[in-house]
Amino acid sequence: MTDDHIEIRGLTKRYPGGDPERPALSGIDLDIGHRHFVSLIGPSGCGKSTLLRVIAGLEGHDDGSVSLFGESPRELCRRKAVGLVPQTPALLPWLTVRQNVALPSKVNRRAPRNGDSPDELLRAVGLDDAAHRYPHELSGGMRQRVAIARAFGLRPEVLLMDEPFSALDEFTREALQIQLLALWQSRATTVVFVTHSVHEAVTLSDRVVVMSARPGRVHEVLPIDLPRPRDREVVSGLRTNDLERRVRTCLQSAWESGAAPDDLIPPAGVR
Ligand SMILES: Nc1ncnc2c1ncn2[C@@H]1O[C@H](COP(=O)(O)OP(=O)(O)OP(=O)(O)O)[C@@H](O)[C@H]1O
Ligand SMILES: [Mg+2]
């Protein structure tokens, strides 16, 4: 059955000109349940962003299959049922912050639903004061928050987020994590979330997928059986610490099992 979850089987992706022996993704098998929150974590270059772009229907693949609740990524993309917050926020530079956030409902010719007006979305990410500014007038973290507000407004069935909070200070990050969990729990959204933070992966997710690099593979999938809501007591509890330790151990073995990047090996004659 593929219509009740995201099903990825034997997924292999090679980029033109890349090492054919070490595809960006190799034999990825992954199941993500409807309305689940899954994080991808792994060394730089292990293919996390590539996997998100394949799921989003923005990149093709060479072997294997991807089914999103019975549909192909391109079908879901065509229905505008998938939202992607990319690693580098893609805002239209000639539109204000407010206009950028309002763009999806304008393009889809759909009035924003309750709670999804551009002003409400900007308030949710703490940017109500910046509504009339242009992207070039914002910091990197502010741009990232505009991209997040825009993705929230889409009300996607599948929300793909690529290190969305990496450029944010600790307090804004925590506030947005709470916002994200509230959004995920109140709407029928499945979230696939990329992060380099073990703490973030554990405290947000139902499962953490640890990937290894060169080629990009699923190294291990760890279930996170912490109760929800993930309040302060849960987040700072012993069980959370224990799970974080397990993810770290797994990351260490994923790092050791991957081939060293060629550019970390000095060319002959260089010491
Ligand atoms: N457009 C592209 N053309 C060629 N190779 C690419 C392209 N995009 C990514 N790659 C290669 O594919 C591999 C996986 O890259 P990807 O960006 O998916 O990694 P990542 O896990 O997201 O890394 P990071 O944590 O640094 O963001 C890398 O070896 C990268 O060089
Ligand atoms: Mg990436």
From TrEMBL:
<dbReference type="InterPro" id="IPR050166">
    <property type="entry name" value="ABC_transporter_ATP-bind"/>
</dbReference>
<dbReference type="InterPro" id="IPR017871">
    <property type="entry name" value="ABC_transporter-like_CS"/>
</dbReference>
<keyword id="KW-0813">Transport</keyword>
<dbReference type="GO" id="GO:0016887">
    <property type="term" value="F:ATP hydrolysis activity"/>
</dbReference>
<keyword id="KW-0547">Nucleotide-binding</keyword>
<keyword id="KW-0067">ATP-binding</keyword>
<dbReference type="InterPro" id="IPR027417">
    <property type="entry name" value="P-loop_NTPase"/>
</dbReference>
<dbReference type="InterPro" id="IPR003593">
    <property type="entry name" value="AAA+_ATPase"/>
</dbReference>
<protein>
    <submittedName>
        <fullName>NitT/TauT family transport system ATP-binding protein</fullName>
    </submittedName>
</protein>
<dbReference type="InterPro" id="IPR003439">
    <property type="entry name" value="ABC_transporter-like_ATP-bd"/>
</dbReference>
<feature type="domain" description="ABC transporter">
    <location>
        <begin position="6"/>
        <end position="238"/>
    </location>
</feature>
<dbReference type="GO" id="GO:0005524">
    <property type="term" value="F:ATP binding"/>
</dbReference>
<dbReference type="Pfam" id="PF00005">
    <property type="entry name" value="ABC_tran"/>
</dbReference>
